[in-house]
UniProtKB/TrEMBL annotation:
Pfam family, one: SKI
Keyword Transferase carried by entry: yes
Example of a GO MF term: kinase activity
Keywords: Kinase, Transferase
SUPFAM superfamilies: P-loop containing nucleoside triphosphate hydrolases
Highest taxon of source: Bacteria
Record protein name field: Shikimate kinase
This protein's record includes keyword Cell division: no
Organism: Acinetobacter calcoaceticus
Amino acid sequence: MLIHFIGPGGAGKTSLAKQFAIDFGAIYYDLDEHFMLKIGDISQFIAKYSYKEYAIKNIELYRSLITTINPDLINIIVCSSGFMTYPNELMDSYHEIKAQIEESSLTFLLLPSFELEICVKEIVRRQLQREYLNCSSWSEEKKIRNRFPLYINLKCQRFLTNEEPSKIAFELSKKIFIDKNTFQTI
């Protein structure tokens, strides 16, 4: 089973994946962590090569990662914040990858709110708490305002991340295992 968590930085994707792994025995792969492990620091890579080259490398890493996943286990891929917002023409295979992720019944767009202003305020607050990002409120607000319409228009399931990860994981498990009649896969 392959589950995707998509959404902006600060939406709670990694926190939820970690909690889901603890509670339900899932294996999670954070695409940002995978990038840093295989390639190096994301900010340094972008500064040296460009955001476009980072996006291309990120897609290549995703394609490589999914070939290693055991379909008999519960797997979660936490997509990078911009992964679903790259231009379709970036790579020949990207449009197909994006469509497969978006159309999967096990893809979840995670946001703290489905209302733009509340979402922006909460994402910026969360991102500014991450000291390693070295970001400004202006840059984070601009990023989420630009990407929010792209996220909200995706044709996948949506899930709010405005509660504790343990509660969200439980609610999500009901959606995945009970609604999908796959409870026996645990």
